[in-house]
Amino acid sequence: MIMTIAAPVIVFAVIILVHEGGHYVTAKLTGMRVEEFAVGFGPVLYSRTIGETKYSLRMIPLGGFNKIAGMDPGDPGTDPRSFSSKPAWARLLVISAGSLMNIILAFLIFWGAFLIVGIQSFPNQPVVGSVLDGSAASLAGIKPSDRILEIRGEPVNAWTDIQGRLTDQASRIVPVRIERDGKVMPLEVIPKDDGRGHAVIGITPYLEAEPVSIMQAASMAGERCLYIIRMMGEGIYYAVTGNASADVAGPLGVARLAGDVAGVGLLQFFLFIAVLSLNLGFLNFLPIPLLDGGLFFTILAETVSGRRMPEKMLYYLQVAGLSILVGLFLFATMKDISSFFR
Questions:
Q1: pTM of the full predicted structure?
Q2: Domain housing 110
Q3: Over residues 184-201, mean pLDDT
Q4: SS3 call for 300
Q5: Which of 9, 95, 263, 272 shows the smallest number of beta carbons within 10 Å?
């Protein structure tokens, strides 16, 4: 229970610290003055000034920021240590460092996971790999390594047989026979509706593992990162073009998912952090004003054209960006709320 509550805080803290840490370190390395490094938004809970930088912890743990001198659009750039006075390559490096660090974090987690677990294959045996805390299976007494023999009196010969035996059984008492340590045990489980009309009991299949080398693990981690990024890009494209409905999760949905995954196991929890870190790195670099990607491409456009963008145009771009972000936040929050009630 404690881990379920703490999991969302840990997830947000890790990916935010890594993201903002990327901005902070590169700003310092390029000689910029960082006035504040904050984790969270809203009222300050704790702060301490070390050197020229104030480090603060704020009440709402859903983000963070670096206050770098000279990042305001109207800054004249007279301070040699301000953001606006630095060459374009330094500003582009600082802006892109946050997303880059999120991608590096995901790569390292996947790398470590492949080294620990190896290559997993699905033998399609009705053997339980893990049981979700608080799930129907957990309440019924099902444990990892149990072999499911029967559901509703019908034999289960493969893992793929399980879903078919549970069809239309949500909220009903379902008799199950399992084998544990050579003993056959009768149990009763009450499947839950997953919100999409499927009856689930909260178990994952047993997977067989084969060890891999360090280089193999690194290659597989890179491939996994590229695959997830490509899938996110395709998802956004299909949603924008109307070829698919947008399936998104806001802070509430992510928090609930984090709690659920934390109940499955530590490895799954770290993999969830990796996927979420990739999401933050990718989405934050989209060319939308107020996001890192919007600022990156603004600086790039100014560098190519040789002149600064008019303040009035920057203002309208920021208003448009804010409208897009507020709309996405409200849409994701409504999806979270409706999913919760389902």
A1: 0.72
A2: 2-116+259-341
A3: 86
A4: helix
A5: 9
